[in-house]
Please model this.
Amino acid sequence: MDGSAPIVVWITPPNGGAATTDAPIRIRFSETMNTRSVEDAFSYGDGYSVYTVGDGGVSWIATESADDTLRFDPRLEFATGGTVTVHLQGQVAKDAEGNLLDGNRDGTGGDDYAWSFPVASDGIPPKVLSTTPAMGNATVSVSTTLRVLFSKAMDRTGVEDALSLAGTGAPTLRIADGSAGWTGSRFPDDTLVFDPSPNLMSGTQYRFVLSGDLAVDRSAVHLDGNGNGTATGSPADDFVLRFTTEMQDLTPPAVVNRTPAADVEGVPPSTQIAAAFSEPMDRSSVEASFSYTDGTSVYGATDGTVTWNPPSDLFSFRASRILSFEGRYTVTLNGSIARDNAGNLLSDGAGETWSFTVAAQPDTTPPYIRGSSPYNAQKNVSRTARVSIVFSEAMDKESVVAAMGITAGAALGDFRWPNDATVDAMTVIPMEYHASYTVYVLTSATDLAGNPLHEPDEIAFTTAAWRGPVTGRVADERGTGIPGARVQLNGFSRLTNETGGFAFESVEQGTYTLTISDSGYDAYTEPVTISPGQGSLGTIALRHSSVSTINPIPGVFVATAIIAALVIGVWLVRRRRSRPTERDETWKAAEVVPVEPTEPGPEKKP
Model:
């Protein structure tokens, strides 16, 4: 038996390498892998949602050995301008012999492997591709749900804040006056679905508006509301959809969601039965129309507890006693009884019927967390990232929300459920830069059968540091800007402009050494701390060099005179040394020598 732990030997897109929006994810291992375990261990996140192999197509390729290369093709393309992080759980992924993945290559299996890659931003502003209802429709149902398809992945919060729906004589509705849902057509979060809580007024002209100042894509590029290829904000780039509602509410209500889903099997016996409608309903008529049967007995609303949501478009029923194991149940909403508030019969009188099957035996398997975004120990997480958690099975939503929390004084909110096994949330206010947080899920989180999470789980991560411009100005003692001075911030260097200004485009928060130098000035060196949003260093004054005086011209003359004197002295010394040797000796007084008088000689004739 092979006892060596498998490792990852090749990946694409590469770590840190820019990827196209439609790039596949491929992972090559050092040996044949247990394919099911790797698929269970695989997930990736984009800062908004977490995805697993169920969100695309997976295939295995034989490169060096059988099943050693995983290829995953996402159903949705990556969002431009984002960063994708792929994660493999080291305690789940294993080779064909059962050896756990050695993610950090230390020779011991059981540790995670992860990498990230950016998706280049194209800078193209997003625009609206289509809407439901269509522009100018004059017979729109008063119970309509609005759907907007964008050209790019959008920032949910920005778009929701940008939304308003107003009609002549009708109150203005905003996101809080209904429910918003997001789906993906080509990209994640490229489709907004807005369901106003109250029915709209009949025979009324409405304007659905998305503010160009607030609606942005994930790269913070503003909406091109008029579709001319540029984004200039409100009002020019507000997107405006105009439509008129039907003169009289003649639209029959319909069931848009069922719990349990139609024909599903393995339903926990403690499950509740629920129906979501396309519009607010007459409660008493729905309750009177409701029944369910196991084929032997028929039960109604009085055999349990009924609850409604405030808009009256979600009916929920929990039976007084649990359903029978292996029982096949059929739910009916009688179409001749159930109606909306305008008297329109459910499904135009046809009603609604669906069936489901209860599990064959009690579900005693505790749920666990399959994946998360961020993943445990992830670094450089966006301070506005959503926290997404994928469980191993459908969960009791209320228990999960109550069991989730986050440390460091933050708070989670805006809980959403893309499906019954996935929850995502975000902090109420953005997290701090370069800070550590831990999201926890307590064992009070249960599945639909009431089984608690197998153990408390924690997801620790660190947010990304702030990065931004650092600016300043260099001047002399009199405040006059110094052009051409060299400014260094650790290893980065800039020259000041004609007014002494300088700018570093993107600097990460932290402590740096600032050095400024220029000819004729004393060098300046000081530590500086760059904090989030505080990149201005103000004006730094340089002092004239100490070897200079206030008036440098006399100094030049003095220096010139000194040099001339030295030259003359040297010349004189050399001149003395060029005379005969005895003249070079030390001077002595002349010695007196007596001289005898001599006889005069014959006189010379000329």
User: Anything to note?
Assistant: The chain has five helices and 38 strands. Confidence is low (pLDDT under 50) at residues 548-559, 576-606. The chain has five domains: 8-118, 128-244, 255-357, 369-463, 467-541.
